[in-house]
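Example (one chain per record):
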Amino acid sequence: MPYEGILDTNLFIRYLHDGTPEEKEKFRNLIEEARRKGTTFYIPFIVVVEMVYVLERVYRLPKTRVREMVESILTLPVEVENLEVVLTALAIYEEENLKFGDAFVLATAKVKGIVPVYTFDRDFRRFSEVNVL
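Predicted structure:
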């Protein structure tokens, strides 16, 4: 499938949180054009990682709100790299109160069935899929 392009993190941050009305309108126009054409944008998983980081650390939004905002982009004409892992990671991130990077590692193990995860990180002690050395 041909992609309309790749969407960078700052587009989502400005659309979802702190963009000017003009920036938000440009983003909406970009999305509507893709819908008219029947095309999609590709989102590398690093864009999701950056979104979570900026929304949580820079704007200090609670994890529940961060998850809602990130999941809201899935209603757009997009394909997210490693979507199943991303969705699982967002759930673990919020429900288990882990850092998103840690949640992504655990989600990868769960989705891909690659266990155990080996780590020195004691935050993982409570997960059976993890072997804390």
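Caption: The mean pLDDT is 95.
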